[in-house]
Please model this.
Amino acid sequence: MCTRFFRTYTALTLTLTQIPAVLLSQAAPAVIGRVTTDDGPVQGAYVTVEGTALRVLSDRDGYYHLPPLDPGPYVITVRAVGFSMLQDTVEVNARTPSRVDFYLERVPIELSAITVTGTMKEAFVSESPVTVKVVPIQALERKVTANLLESLEHVNGLYRQVGCGVCGTTNIRINGLEGAATAFLIDGMPIMGALASVYGLNGIHPAIVEQVEVLKGPSSTLYGSEALAGVVNVITKDPRLAPRFAMNAFGTSHGEFNGDFAVAGGSERLNTLLSGSLSYIDNFIDNNGDGFCDIPYGARAYLFGKLDYYGIAAKRMGLAVKYYHEDRVGGTEAFDKSIRGSSSIYGESIYTNRLELVGMYRLPSSSQDVSVQFSYAYHDQDSYYGRTKYDALQHIGYLNLIWNTRLGARHDFLMGGTLRYHSYDDNTAATIRPDKRFIPGVFVQDEFRMTSVLDLLGGLRLDHQADHGFIFSPRAAVKWDLSGSTTARLNVGTGFRVINLFTEDHAAYHGHRTIVIDEDLEPERTTNVTFNLNQILRFGRNPMVIDADLFWTHFKNKIVHDYDLDPSQIHYYNVPGHSVSRGFGVSLSQSFDRVPLTYSLGVTVQDVYNVQNGSREDEYYAAAWNGVWSASYLLAYDIKLDYTGTIVGPMRLPAYDPPFDRPTRSPTYSVHNIQATLSVGSWLDVYGGVKNLFNYTQMSPLIDPGHPFGDNFDAAYVYGPLEGRRFFVGLRMTRER
Model:
């Protein structure tokens, strides 16, 4: 069925891109102009008309055309990533188009990036009252990978945790909190929850990503359950700005290969993008000598299609579809998929099939912004963990109705209703019957421009769950421009989360431990306070941007998975006391004008712990501190050198009884990566480098690997890299429109 669907979609895409632009041309424009800078025209600048929903993009030559407007004065605003914002007033008449040109100056990209995650509407990072970190595609390309999670581990405050030493499940921790508490969005829609957070995250390929937006701290007011630790919003490529054709392929010395492509086209009103990827590794690697492969092998493939339709100026409809398939294998060298479920040769085999649909429709109005957003995710998993079979099927549907309008000159008001449908079923004893939930909700938000330097934001959300009744989630934010170079933000928010046991601890399915639920689990509730100070230090044309964060999160009903109560079991219960995550983070970045160097540094220090009966215990796998860095330098002959790295401090690890006891604290370690890229003309890049330069790997993550079917076998002791040094080489081709 999926094959027929994508054949049909591909044919439709190719047909639509051939529609003559004249058939969809606009009427005579009211305002025309050009956006330029020192380096020439600016493509993709956002040109908007204040007080309306109109928005257009400048073309590759920097020109823009605004549609017909009623005669009168209008304020035109131009924004572009990496440049200053400009405004100008123009008088529109009914006879001839008015012309307004804009000349933009470069500013730090961290402040000029556009985000939608913080307030559910587009805003510049520098203007948003909510602290959001935007990771552009340029930063993602500093470390070539076929898995987006590898790139995110270089964002300050984020840590990529490997949850299984056999099948390599991964998640992202924000400020030390468990990965299951991080909400992953695709184009603003929460479709990656529960089961998908174990394996579906591997299906997000950097080739389809325009930028990633990271919001630290509970965000349930806008995004509901699972946004407990924060939000990672993956913004896919805009078909209007994507190259006509792009291709990327690379291979590594460990036998990994990845190839992907993207084709974009369309007209003034209709634009399409088709992308696909194939990644595989078919090489058994056992450098730690435990008899198991250090990293899982197998194949991953996806096909992604996106279609956007524009009205007179603003986007009216968008639709994106992605199909993802993975065949993942881990275990001993003698294991083969043909003996899945064997009780004599240990192996883990996971087949994943996933279909995602994300769309939006905006009502045709120039004065009101009313839109419908929807998403659907189908996730089917067929797997064996040794002789234990695990089959699961999940459906997630999400519907948003959003109304965004201005109330007077100072209030930007947003309200909406949501409906989430969640269906989950598996073959385990923990799931007696399919878990089906309808979760309706309503939310409101108001951003109040109190003065020219002070913004206030308040929001409320009310959800209803059949098992837990009404759940109330408020939040508030203050943004204060202390000067032209200093901005302070204070965010206070709440979050809630309802669990899924497989997501909570996948270790129960590939080891000897059994699940014990000690009580009826209540939803986790959190209160968070975050203070952010953004400082620009003016060093002539080389400004330095410093971000400092203080964070504190208090948990109520935190759900604990206890390894220590009984070594053969994992006990789940709500902490009778409380849990806390607190700490601070500092990052700085700078680009030089006369020297072709860009760098960034960041460090986060955190204290994550549980308190029960007056006794304190540190959270598992929450490092006391971690740091990230990157540097890019342009050498002669158009060769760019990228150096990225991470350093991770000690963390608490599970305890095991003798003779299988291991250290309960991990050592401090660091990982370094180097990549060199040679640009050949404007369409071809050849690159190569090395990952994990100093070949650091942890000890074997397996407990009693010689007896994988025994009572002592466990694969959860993972705190550092399992894959050692590997070299890579690749090429990237791009054909602009």
